[in-house]
Amino acid sequence: MRLAYSLVDWQALAPGLHGGEGWQHWAQQGIVIDPKEAMAKPQFLPMMTARRLSGGSRAAVECGLALLARQQVDAIVFTSRHGELERNLRILTTLADQQSMSPTDFAMSVHNSAVGSLTIAAKAPLVSTSIAAGVDSFQQGLLEVSALHQAGYQQVLLVDFDGVVPDYYLPWLPEQRVNFPYAVALLLRPGDQLHCTGRAGKEERA
Length: 206
Hints:
The chain has a single domain (2-196), classed as Thiolase/Chalcone synthase (Peroxisomal Thiolase, Chain A, domain 1, 3-Layer(aba) Sandwich), CATH 3.40.47. 35% of the residues lie in helices and 22% in strands. The chain has helices at 20-29, 47-52, 55-70, 85-96, 103-107, 113-122, 137-150; strands at residues 2-13, 75-79, 127-131, 156-162, 182-197. It has a five-stranded mixed beta sheet, sandwiched between helices. It is globular. The relative contact order is 0.24. This is Beta-ketoacyl synthase. InterPro entries: Ketoacyl_synth_N.
């Protein structure tokens, strides 16, 4: 399988990184991202909405709003491996303790709450989807973008994001993992600038 796209625009957020020059310096120098660094304050996300979102979702919606402010977008795809894991653990802990559940946690616990928050904040009723496919989430997002291109949506916004994985789940995750809020938004249209080619690989044994 071969996928091809042209990159129209992009936006990304991570601790200590937000602007284009900063990200280019990071890519060229191979700098390790410090999770203790602060995330940039939202410039497009309304304060009340930002307060309701978890760290990863906040970064995702902010990146999406930045691109929607300067580009034409026909459809949106959100991908996340863990989604609202922090919020869901709080809900499960609350239920186990037989305490009253937070209405905000309940309302924002579904996997598509981030993309829904984006379309609401932008007042843009666009076609959207949210994908969770484990370690393959970003790859499956690219497939979804290609499907939308085939359906006639020319400029598709792909946003990949994640938040902090709670300590409770860390024993089940590999040691080398990203465990800080981040988001990257890519505006992709049909083209031949970027290529993805599937190939058979040998699964590594633990």
